[in-house]
Design brief:
By secondary structure, this protein is an alpha/beta fold. It has 2 domains: 133 residues, Alpha-Beta Complex (Aspartate Aminotransferase, domain 1), CATH 3.90.1150; 254 residues, Type I PLP-dependent aspartate aminotransferase-like (Major domain) (Aspartate Aminotransferase, domain 2, 3-Layer(aba) Sandwich). Helix content is 41%, strand content 17%. It contains 14 helices and 17 strands. It has a 7-stranded mixed beta sheet, with helices on both faces. Strands 13-14-17-16 form a 4-stranded antiparallel beta sheet, covered by helices on one side. Helix 5 links the parallel strand 5 and strand 6. Helix 11 packs parallel to helix 14. The longest helix has 21 residues. The radius of gyration is 22 Å and the shape is globular. The two termini are 42 Å apart. The structure holds pyridoxal-5'-phosphate. Pyridoxal-5'-phosphate (PLP) binds next to helix 4.
């Protein structure tokens, strides 16, 4: 695998950013886009545009076929049993809201418990908080340990007879911890509890197999997978999509509409109300082809190698403190530097073209636990190299000098 050649597929790297080569270490936030994805959006709008699932003219039928083709590509990519288990949403946030709202409406009542973890992104907390407000549902949090992990045991400890759903991250966007989803799902299912996985950080980096993981719901963020913004995916087992009520009402999701009442469309239309993100869905097929061309196992392997190197570099750097040390970990390195606010770190690094993120990374529960208002975070994509971490290291040393 030649990373230089892969990197050349991303036009963002062919320019200087403030007179520097770009060192992009912010892929957990959003990944850069390869030319094929950008071209696909341009071509679709310039030569092939039509809305999908409505008209029967040539362009409309062709666009509908392409849109549905992406659904099949996603199904294969995550090894879902059925293409109708793939629902397009505007992002992972909407995918989780869809489940919280419809599952909450149908199955949750006052006193029922939803089990999350202390690692969760706000997108996997706030939607459940609404149910706490509206229905008196209780939210429990499985503890994160010193290493920044959530173990099977810590989940088990918090399950009670009132636990009605478990909603957990696959890979933490702060500590990088990879949770044992298959084991957690087995445990949950032995107690008849469904499992939702926030797969935002899992899907771009780990080989996914829905039939093997056996979780009930899996939320995906396409803009973190070298795909367009404004697009997410909800994988849900067919039985749930059949049982749960629709999330939004409008055109496209109905069966028959009469003054007396309404029936809903077949799956997955029932969950795709209104004009969908046509161009984004069609272009996302190119992202999947891009991922498949390299091979997700090769991506994981490359990112792991860079992660280990980056970790070693940061550990050697005096006064850099890494957040967590999980045994099973993906490409995220959050850190602090004594006496320097993470926003200042990010600002000085930016002067050298090093793009990282600083803040609470939408994980305030975890940062409260760590006793930190913010951390700096370097996160990986397929285009990162060891040299990126050498440059980061140099830029950190410059930052330390400035603040001495
Ligand atoms: C772990 C995690 N969950 C959820 C989200 C939200 O995803 P989206 O931007 O697709 O709504 C993010 C994005 O930052 C994330 O990292």
């Amino acid at each position: 695998m030649n990373i230089d050649n892969i990197k050349k597929e991303f036009p963002i790297f062919n320019q200087k950013i403030q007179n520097n080569d770009l060192v992009y270490l912010d892929s957990a936030n959003s990944s850069q886009k390869p030319q094929v994805v950008i071209d696909r959006i341009y071509d679709f709008y310039s030569k092939e545009f039509s809305n999908v699932g409505r008209s029967i003219h040539y362009l409309a039928v062709a666009a509908t076929n392409m849109y549905e083709n992406t659904r099949v590509s996603v199904q294969k990519f995550i090894n879902a049993r059925d293409k109708n288990e793939i629902v397009f949403t505007k992002g992972a946030t909407e995918a989780i809201n869809l489940v919280a709202s419809t599952f909450g409406q149908k199955y949750l009542k006052s006193g029922d418990e939803v089990l999350l973890t202390e690692l969760e992104h706000h997108s996997n907390y706030v939607p459940w908080h609404y149910l706490r407000k509206s229905k008196g549902v209780k939210i429990e949090f499985a503890d994160v340990n010193e290493e920044g992990e959530v173990t099977l045991e810590s989940i088990e400890k918090k399950i009670t007879p009132k636990t009605k759903i478990i909603a957990i991250t696959h890979l933490s966007n702060v500590t990088g911890a990879i949770l044992p989803i298959k084991e957690i799902t087995q445990l949950a299912h032995s107690k008849n509890i469904p499992v939702l996985v926030d797969g935002c950080q899992g899907a771009p980096h780990l080989k996914l197999d829905m039939q093997d993981l056996d979780c009930d719901f899996y939320a995906i963020s396409c803009h973190k997978m070298y795909g367009p913004t404004g697009l997410g995916i909800l994988y849900a087992k067919k039985k749930w999509l059949e049982e749960l009520p629709p999330y939004q009402g409008g055109g496209g999701m109905i069966g028959e509409v009469k003054k007396e009442g309404i029936t809903y469309g077949d799956l997955p239309n029932k969950y795709e109300a209104g004009t969908m993100q046509t161009a984004q869905v069609i272009a996302f097929d190119e992202s999947i082809k891009f991922l498949n061309k390299i091979g997700i196992e090769n991506i994981s392997k490359h990112e792991n190698e860079i992660l280990m190197y980056g970790e070693e570099i940061l550990r050697k750097n005096n006064s850099v403190k890494l957040i967590g040390n999980p045994k099973n970990k993906g490409g995220v390195l959050s850190f602090t530097i004594d006496g320097i606010h993470p926003h200042d770190i990010a600002t000085i690094l930016d002067e050298d073209g090093v793009a990282i993120r600083a803040g609470h990374h939408c994980c305030q529960i975890l940062h409260d636990k760590l006793g930190l208002p913010a951390t700096a975070r370097a996160s990986l994509g397929i285009y990162n190299t060891k040299e990126d971490f050498d440059i980061l290291d140099k830029a950190i040393n410059k930052t330390k000098k400035i603040f001495k």
